[in-house]
Amino acid sequence: MGEKLGALVMTLGFEPGPLVSAMAAHASEGFEPGGEIIVLTHSFKDERAERAWRQLQDVFSMMRLGESGVELRRLSIDLEDFTSAVLHIKSIFVRLKSKRVRISLTGGMRALVLAVFVAYLLTDWAQVPDVEVFL
Asked: What beta strand segments (E) does the chain contain?
């Protein structure tokens, strides 16, 4: 049996479907104790993104991942200054760099997806994460 996942990082757009698919696919691998699912989204308010976040929370609850110690977190990224956005995301990645991580580019603004990918490339990973794109 392989090593369990320490973190799943996803990008949130306006639809929860791709995030649900990624979450379900990786939940089958299992999460290590204290594992986390981090959902990155843009910082400006948008009702479609809010609705997608609520639906994702509902699915997370139905999957009972929280009962197994997995935390679902949403982090807003300010994309007004691209360099600052990359550095913010990189600081998240630096905290995760020794864990087994999956990065799922599942939606969101192109600038957010690009910032996540650039931050991934700039992080000195102990275990290089798999990066996947859900179209």
From this structure: 5-11, 31-42, 71-77, 101-105, 130-133
Q: What is the pLDDT of residues 15-56, one digit of tens each?
A: 888 899 999 988 888 899 899 999 999 988 888 889 999 999
Report the alpha-carbon distance of residue 129 to residue 135 in Å, rounded: 19
Q: How far apart are CA 77 and CA 111, in angstroms?
A: 10
For the chain, percent helix, then strand, then coil, each to nearest 5?
A: 45, 25, 30
Could you give the angle at which helices 47-63 and 17-27 cross, rounded to 10 degrees? 20
User: How far, in Å, CA of 33 to CA of 54, rounded?
Assistant: 24
Q: What residue type is 10 in one-letter code?
A: M
Cβ–Cβ contacts within 10 Å for residue 75, how many? Answer: 14
In the block, tokens 């910032």 appear at 115
CA distance 22 to 15: 13
In the block, tokens 């007004």 appear at: 80
